[in-house]
Design brief:
The protein is of the alpha+beta class. The chain folds into 2 domains: 3-30 and 71-248 and 306-375, 2-Layer Sandwich (Endonuclease, Chain A); 411-625, Endonuclease, Chain A. The chain is built from 15 helices and 18 strands. It has an 18-stranded mixed sheet that branches. Helix 3 packs across helix 4 (125-137), helix 4 (125-137) crosses helix 5 and helix 10 runs parallel beside helix 11 (431-443).
């Protein structure tokens, strides 16, 4: 039965009501589905926090391409191992197409490992047999693995049911200081299959976007017989990003000697050196190598990656597909200008004409009757339909800007009523985002905020420390402004304890949960690049980003609980649903574990952020201890 006939015959799987009439379908704002109504029991007015673009007074300009829509199912994916398992499963199910937007991209990454490999092999024996044969044909690749490029090649070359595999890959220019290994990644894909349609997308100049920035979206969309499956979030298909919540330096870490030689990309392996980890205390200082953003650090690599991703079926997945189509159509590179060759060191390559992807996805126009069975989750939160909006930071050209992520964060942080939970790689580097939250903290004396950020980010360290300090200070009680124990904003980092060695877990997740009712998951950090240039005075910097905003109490609470449970470990309280209880538990566990540079075992993963190493101010407790010391008393 075709999807179109199925759509016409089917009824809403939850309510058993007919599909919405055409006059209820929104077509004027980029979406094709019914607009979302308020969450039952919500403390927010209808449409209160959704991004609206030029409809919002005082917006910097630009439209928001996609509107919020009902009828979605979501599944939260904690860390890289779970995200890659779900994407591997979806790719195996693909019958029409696989679309991938890549930033940091390692085609040779092994997607599933251990018992997950056995699960995938059991579900899709014919496909995995072909992957084994493909691996065997490449001398030096282990047979019983599922490298991403091998699976994509098998799907693209399948004689019985070939799938259109299309990739849009970031092609950084010389100003972006580092190749990300894109040349090797591009060549590897071409070497494994000439049936894979891979496009390079440059950013800035005569291409897309601002002069400073990068294509930073991380997304996959899969066309199956049952409907679309979409993914977005912070997880790159890149070495070291496959990670389990335990985050330990075990045999699964993608270090150089564990990657099969034909799948290695040397430019990427330098990121993964367990001997010197970014943010680790070496006895004198925190090891750091932030790149080219003006910080005075020297060395270190990111090894243990903490991340978060979202899987979605329903109308939002169609919006993810439309985003891919736009990115694909706009993708340009030197390769299309300089004799179809990227540079003299690469093989000449004739780039074929672009496909008509609007024609390719039109079968999936109606995604409102999709079943939650397309998700593998058996959790109750994934069985309920939810309102969702796909958001972007995207600047194609002047007059065609999309600052939906900035607007959503401005609404979320500026209108939160009770509590905020945030994880971000570059937490509040953007002073405008920080300003919105500070204003809310000062006027709302009940608001509490948890922030989880890296011990040491690879960029912006001094700015982030400064802005986080200001956030903490804004939450102090005016009656006792030096009592930091009573601050309503607390900042933490994550540590893995390995044989008494404290190894930083690099926080790469980009999420926020507001009042346990709204949740946003995406690729955008809370820096100027992540906001797409919307907050820059001259708007000359910004990256392309992608996120999903969900309004659903069950979904938001589950997301926060997943993260809190991982970080608290055995110190987690029995009732994670109560934010105040979690707020106090974070403080208690981090205080017990101490600072990143301390020694000794830890409970869970939480430590106090480095900003507390750098004295915020002298408080009464410190003075008391100092006077006691000077008086010769024990302290």
């Amino acid at each position: 039965m075709s999807l179109l006939i199925y759509a016409l015959m089917s009824k809403n799987s939850d309510t058993q009501e007919p599909l919405p009439a055409l006059d209820l379908i929104n077509k004027s704002k980029g979406g094709e589905g019914p607009l979302a109504s308020a969450e039952p029991g919500s403390s927010y007015p209808e449409e209160d926090l959704w991004a609206r673009g030029n409809e919002t007074k005082g917006h910097v300009g630009g439209t928001v391409k996609y509107r919020e829509q009902d009828g979605n199912y979501v599944q939260w994916l904690l860390d890289g191992a779970q995200a890659m398992y779900e994407m591997c499963d979806a790719f195996c199910r693909a019958t029409e197409f696989i679309y991938i937007i890549g930033c940091f991209f390692s085609p040779g990454i092994n997607m599933v490992r251990g018992s997950d490999y056995d699960k995938i092999s059991g579900k899709y024996p014919n496909i995995i047999d072909k992957v084994r044969a493909k691996n065997k044909s490449k001398n030096g690749v282990k047979e019983n693995t599922i490298p991403l490029v091998s699976l994509l090649a098998v799907k693209a070359q399948d004689q019985d049911n070939p799938v259109n595999v299309r990739i849009v890959l970031t092609h950084p220019d010389i100003s972006q200081n580092g190749s990300f290994g894109w040349k090797e990644a591009y060549e590897m894909v071409r070497d494994w299959s000439d049936k894979i349609d891979i496009r390079l997308a440059m950013w800035g100049g005569v291409y897309e976007g601002h002069e400073l920035g990068v294509h930073h979206q991380k997304s996959a969309i899969v066309g199956t017989e049952e409907g679309l499956i979409g993914f977005c979030g912070g997880v790159d298909f890149a070495f070291a990003r496959w990670a389990i919540p335990g985050h330990v330096l075990d045999k699964e870490i993608d270090i150089l000697d564990r990657i099969d030689l034909p799948l290695r990309i040397d430019a990427q392996m330098s990121w993964i050196i367990p001997d010197k980890v970014m943010g680790e205390w070496d006895g004198r200082e925190y090891v750091c190598n932030p790149g080219n953003f003006g910080e005075n650090c020297k060395e270190g690599s990111q090894v243990l990656w903490h991340d978060f991703h979202a899987k979605v079926v329903g109308p939002a997945a169609l919006d993810l597909a439309h985003n891919f189509v736009e990115r694909y159509n706009n993708a340009k590179t030197k390769a299309e200008i300089l004799d179809y060759q990227i540079d003299a060191k690469m093989k000449p390559h004739i780039i074929p004409p672009k496909a008509d992807l609007e024609e390719e996805i039109k079968t999936y126009k109606n995604q409102f009757i999709i079943s939650s069975d397309l998700l593998s989750s058996d959790k109750s939160y994934s069985k309920g339909k939810v309102r969702a909006q796909i958001l972007r930071s995207y600047y194609h050209k002047k007059g065609d800007e999309d600052y939906g992520i900035w607007e959503a964060y401005r609404n979320l942080l500026g209108k939160a009523k009770k509590n905020i939970y945030i994880e971000s790689q570059y937490a509040f580097e953007d002073g405008e985002v920080q300003k919105v939250l500070i204003e809310n903290i000062k006027k709302n004396k009940e608001l509490k905020v948890i922030i989880v950020a890296p011990v040491m980010p690879d960029h912006y360290d001094s700015v982030i420390i400064k802005n986080l300090k200001e956030l903490v200070k804004s939450s102090l009680d005016s009656r006792n402004p030096k009592d930091y124990s009573a601050a309503r904003v607390k900042v933490y980092s994550l540590i893995s304890n390995i044989n008494s060695r404290r190894v930083p877990i690099y926080v790469h997740a980009k999420i926020a949960v507001i009042d346990d009712e709204w949740a946003i998951v995406g690729s955008a950090n809370l820096d100027r690049m992540g906001m797409g240039g919307a907050t820059s005075p001259v708007q000359n910097r910004g990256s392309s980003e992608l996120a999903i905003l969900v309004h659903g109490k069950d979904q938001a609470l589950v997301l926060r609980n997943m993260l809190a449970g991982e970080h608290l470990g055995s110190g987690a309280p029995s009732n994670l649903n109560d934010f105040n209880t979690v707020f106090n538990a974070f403080d208690k566990i981090a205080s017990k574990n101490g600072k990143p540079k301390n020694n000794g075992p830890i409970t869970g993963q939480l430590v106090c952020h480095r900003l507390y190493d750098l004295s915020l101010t002298v408080n009464k407790s410190f003075l008391s201890r100092l006077f006691s010391f000077l008086a010769g008393k024990s302290i």
